Amino acid sequence: xxxxxxxxxxxxxxxxxxxxxxxxxxxxxxxxxxxxxxxxxxxxxxxxxxxxxxxxxxxxxxxxxxxxxxxxxxxxxxxxxxxxxxxxxxxxxxxxxxxxxxxxxxxxxxxxxxxxxxxxxxxxxxxxxxxxxxxxxxxxxxxxxxxxxxxxxxxxxxxxxxxxxxxxxxxxxxxxxxxxxxxx
Amino acid sequence: xxxxxxxxxxxxxxxxxxxxxxxxxxxxxxxxxxxxxxxxxxxxxxxxxxxxxxxxxxxxxxxxxxxxxxxxxxxxxxxxxxxxxxxxxxxxxxxxxxxxxxxxxxxxxxxxxxxxxxxxxx
Lengths: 184, 122
Description:
The complex is a heterodimer of chains A (184) and B (122).
Chain A: H1 4-17, E1 22-30, E2 35-42, H2 49-54, H3 71-80, E3 85-91, E4 95-103, H4 115-125, E5 130-137, E6 140-145, H5 146-153, H6 161-178
Parallel strand pairs in A: 1-5
Antiparallel strand pairs in A: 1-2, 2-4, 3-4, 5-6
Chain B: H1 7-16, H2 18-21, E1 28-33, H3 36-41, H4 43-56, E2 62-67, E3 79-82, E4 89-91, H5 96-108, H6 118-121
Parallel strand pairs in B: 1-2
Antiparallel strand pairs in B: 1-3, 3-4
């Protein structure tokens, strides 16, 4: 994966597969503490302890099309190369939390990348799932809750291409605002 | 500064076209493989480009959706096009540059872009 937003898109797919109805993505950048954290939390079916223990193993997957499951293990590797770590917490029937921690200024820390695309595509492809996207940069915060968007659209689908494009632009602008007018 | 109330405008526009959009059984589906293999190979910008192109051309009968691993990871990004009444067409090793041509030739004019298909590349 070239950047962290691709990892996030990948982990979101796990949450979707787990039949979540609410997926929360939170990115927090703290330059003082030199810390970048990413939390992806869902209310899907979760994992039992046995699966949770081996879920970071690249040769473990629930899919049937191939024998490897690289999503989480690649994300873990990306965290570790930036002096960070990745942990997964899960309760069967309740949901799963993936928590990634990276050193913000580390030379090998991958850029966040096009997170607006990641969120816009995840939202529009999963009309029946609600998403909360929170992005903090040193105390400034941007928040997007699809429940508000759906309320405003009042029956019109978030899957429409023009809505997808609008969501993407909206997130891009929101991130710029909390980042002192700069793109990520 | 963008605000959520802008969605009202989109909503009104969409509702004025609602008879054209609603329940179209003859809709075309564009399915993008979005598992780890697809994402790593660049499926996200491909999907984004399809959505922008469909929105730009205001194609009301086309849906862009995601799926998981299609099972040919080495040929990702893979895009499948389902036109009702026709056989599925599988495009492989996709890039955003290829999207405009597929939309204009295949989606709009019904002519498959043979050189991008799995048959031409595997």
